[in-house]
Design goal:
Polyamine Oxidase, Chain A, domain 2; FAD/NAD(P)-binding domain; globular; single chain; 7-stranded mixed beta sheet; 33% helix
Length: 452
């Protein structure tokens, strides 16, 4: 069958854009199709009267993100464009924020933990450090934790370890349910990422990487893909405006979306797609006329609110001070806060009108940030129905077989392929899939060892 192009990439998030970037020198014609009017996906940002608002991802760790930093260097980004995150992370306990979460000094200062719990947390950290080589974030199914959930891991230690450390971190940064989510990917990711003192952000907004990549590849925004049908040696792509044929199609979208688009996916692949669920994310940006911040001091970057500390009906899971993360997020003398809904509160709020979401979240947030209502200039609501891949024990058990899938005209890239919710997971899978597509199309080969 005659083809309109060699490779159609569905989705202009970091996975789709970095895949197209890797394929650019193979001699293949590659085009990225994005339903939204902008690139970035879950790493998007927008600008409003001098504020830079990160709608999805918030930071990028220094450690454990080797391919992300290699790609940034290839794109000519300087270290100054990715400065360290300002301020510590605190956890709310007994009416105030306790700093030191994800920091070694938290074992000394408390970080919301009782003395006995600090000893147990030290035991946990020491055990995972000794077995560090066994916690490969790209192969979470091979770790010593097996299919144990985060809650089952926490149950081996003092209750505070789960209530004030593991639970709040899992809920805030992954949107996971500790009782349902596998511990292996979480521990592997946290081991790789290191303490918050080494985390960074993009000075120009979290969409910086996506915008740089988009400038190097062929991207069509506002072009939603409605259906993908695989043939023997090509695939059809039906968009909002046309139907075209490609030698290969790569679905760089969340697993539930890929399952919906790929109408004749093989049974073995569809099983993993169905098991790889995503958790929703709901948050409100508060653009302020002064630099308020949560926690015990004005330089706290993030305040995590544990489930055991939330009162009845309290929907707040965390509050982030984006102007502390990087001063360029807000004009001089002003502030920018993000109020994140707790995972347990999202189902009832997700489809509510924006005005209702703002009212519920910001009213509750004043408990943690006094004066928030008076300082707010304007609010924006951000929803991601497919926010982050949730690594359940079922998905973990199916991942190895899915990774061994044969070459076919329709393939995938995204952080969910390795159950590693991060830009690093997206970039690594994009490089691996680029090498697969090069082999499938007999293009100039990509050395996967060089690409990954």
């Amino acid at each position: 069958m005659d083809t309109d192009l060699d490779v159609a990439v569905v989705g202009a998030g970091v996975a789709g854009l970095s895949l197209a970037y890797r394929l650019r020198h193979t001699g293949l014609s590659v085009r990225v199709f994005e339903a939204a009017g902008h690139v970035g996906g879950r790493m998007a940002s927008f600008r409003h009267h001098g504020y830079t608002v990160d709608t999805g991802a918030e930071q990028v760790p220094t450690h454990g993100y080797e391919q992300t930093w290699r790609l940034l260097r290839e794109l000519g980004m300087s270290p100054a464009e990715a400065p360290r995150v300002g301020g510590p992370i605190a956890v709310w306990r007994d009416g105030r924020g306790r700093p030191g979460v994800t920091q070694p000094r938290g074992l000394l200062t408390g970080a919301g933990l009782s003395p006995r719990a600090r000893l147990d947390l030290a035991r946990l950290l020491a055990a995972t450090a000794r077995q560090g080589a066994l916690y490969d974030p790209d192969r979470p199914e091979d770790t010593p934790l097996g299919s144990r959930t985060v809650a089952q891991l926490a149950a081996r230690y003092h209750p505070d370890v789960g209530d004030y450390q593991l639970g709040p971190v899992v809920s805030t940064f992954f949107g996971w349910n500790p009782a349902r989510s596998a511990a292996a990917p979480f521990v592997s990711l946290m081991n790789a990422a290191g303490p918050v003192s080494t985390w960074r952000t993009y000075a120009g907004g979290m969409d910086t990487l996506a915008r740089r990549l988009a400038g190097r590849v062929d991207v069509v925004t506002g072009a939603g893909v409605r259906e993908v049908v695989a043939g023997t040696d090509s695939a059809l792509v039906r968009t909002d405006h046309q139907t075209l044929c490609a030698r290969a199609v790569v679905l760089c979208v969340p697993a539930p979306v890929a399952a919906q688009l790929y109408v004749n996916a093989p049974d073995g692949e569809r099983e993993f797609l169905a098991a790889c669920g995503f958790t929703p994310v709901l948050k409100v940006s508060c653009l302020l006329d002064r630099p308020l911040a949560p926690g015990p001091r004005r330089r706290t970057y993030a305040l995590l609110v544990p489930e055991v500390e939330r009162g009845a009906g309290d929907p707040v899971g965390a509050i982030l001070a984006d102007h502390v993360k990087h001063p360029g997020r807000a004009p001089a003398g002003r502030g920018l806060l993000t109020v994140m809904a707790a995972p347990t509160a999202i189902p009832a709020l997700f489809d509510a009108p924006d005005e209702e979401v703002v009212r519920v979240l910001t009213t509750a947030a004043q408990r943690y940030v006094p004066g928030l209502a008076d300082a707010t200039v304007v609010n924006f609501v951000h929803r991601f129905r497919h926010g982050l891949p949730e690594a359940t024990p079922e998905a973990l058990g199916l991942r190895r077989a899915f990774a061994a899938r044969p070459l076919r005209p329709v393939d995938y890239a995204g952080d969910w392929l390795v159950l590693r919710p991060s830009s690093e997971g997206a970039i690594r899978t994009a490089a691996t899939t680029a090498a697969r597509i090069a082999r499938l199309t007999a293009a100039r080969p990509i050395d996967v060892k060089e690409a990954v």
